[in-house]
Amino acid sequence: MSTGDGFLVLSSFLASGVEMVEALTIVLAAGLARGWRSSLAGLGVATLVLAVTVAVLGPALTVIPLQALRLVVGALLLVFGLQWLRKAILRASGYKALHDEDAIFARELADARGAASDERAGLDWYGFTLSFKGVLLEGLEVVFIVLTFGSAQASIPLAAVGAAAALILVAGVGVAVRAPLARVPENAMKFAVGVMLTTFGIFWSVEGAGADWPGSDAALLGVLGLVVGSSFLFVHLLRRERRARLSTVEVRA
Amino acid sequence: MTWLAGFGRFWWEFVIGDDWLVAVLVIVAIGATAVLAAAGVTAWWLLPPAVLLILWLSLRRAIRSA
């Protein structure tokens, strides 16, 4: 397995894992508050829609020439990855609240318990749509990452292996504990995913633009080091700036 | 039409997010890399620092608007 392939599986696993933890929180809230039948039906239908999306788009992407694909996918991943990385840096430096799965679960549970009863097709409609929408929206991010990563590296099955491993792990632990996976280091994982998306985005955009990396695939490690180092530097600078601002406010008060 | 607008908005928020300037600057930086590569000049070095500069600018914008 090459450096690129290893990163591909790891990135797909981490990104899919983060999204699946979030989807699990919604399915659990819908199941506990509105009944498991409706919640699991929503999960099943959303999974079916996602499977059809992958089955239709996956083969279509393999027809596009690799360089054009890398240009488009690289640019998309770069824009998408910089969103993740910016939010992760803002969270790590204290400018944005940390993602709290327990708080989200409590909010979803309270909303689901307070919603009026509406039965359609033998299902609690609120529970069904809550679970369906949650899984579909989080799942679309997984599909987007698996298809873009997989197609640009010319190996959708390898990206799917990473996503499947995350699915088995999150679903297995979710069924075992029947509670939101608040102990998963989600903020650190989101930081790592932002770094990976940005690294791959840079790598494939350069190749798609017609330039060659010195050292070919091994250059990924260099790009990764640069993105990780710069991200930590940004966190450090912003934390210092925030502390200075807060102490100025305290002195004035 | 409402459905189409909603669909477009979903994809805009999904990919572009809350800072459209990042998308514009990324496209400009990739375009510049392509121009250098087409002219036969070594171009791999351009995008990494450009992306980090874009990230820093976007962080400053986010903090200013917070």
Counted up, domains of chain B total 1
Task: Tell me which protein chains meet in the greatest interface and how many residues each side has.
Answer: A-B, 37 and 32 residues
| Mass-distribution shape of chain A | flat
> Which value, in Å, is the CA radius of gyration of chain B?
16 Å
The H/E string of chain A reads: HHHHEEHHHH
Give me the count of strands of chain B.
0
Strand order of the biggest β-sheet of chain A: 1-2
Shape of chain B: flat
Query: What average pLDDT do the residues of chain A reach?
Result: 86
The total of helices of chain A stands at: 8
Structural class category of chain B: mainly alpha
Distance between the termini of chain A: 59 Å
Order of helices and strands of chain B: HHH
Describe the protein's architecture and organization.
The complex is a heterodimer of chains A (253) and B (66). Chain A has 253 residues and is an all-alpha fold. Chain A has one domain. Chain A has a two-stranded antiparallel ribbon. In chain A, β1 and β2 form a beta hairpin. In chain A, α3 packs across α5. Chain A is flat, with a radius of gyration of 20 Å. Chain A starts with a helix and ends with a helix. The mean pLDDT of chain A is 86. Chain B has 66 residues and is an all-alpha fold. Chain B has one domain. In chain B, 80% of the residues lie in helices and 0% in strands. Chain B starts with a helix and ends with a helix. Chains A and B meet through α3, α5, α7 and α8 of A and α1, α2 and α3 of B.
Task: Briefly summarize what is shown.
With 253 residues, chain A is mainly α. Chain A is 82% helix and 2% strand.
Labels describing this entry:
heterodimer; A: 253 residues; mainly alpha; two-stranded antiparallel sheet; 8 helices; 2% strand; flat; B: 66 residues
Question: What's the arrangement of secondary structure elements?
Answer:
The complex is a heterodimer of chains A (253) and B (66).
Chain A: H1 3-34, H2 36-63, H3 66-92, H4 101-114, E1 119-120, E2 123-124, H5 125-152, H6 156-177, H7 186-208, H8 219-252
Antiparallel strand pairs in A: 1-2
Chain B: H1 2-16, H2 20-38, H3 47-65
Helix pairs in contact in B: 2-3
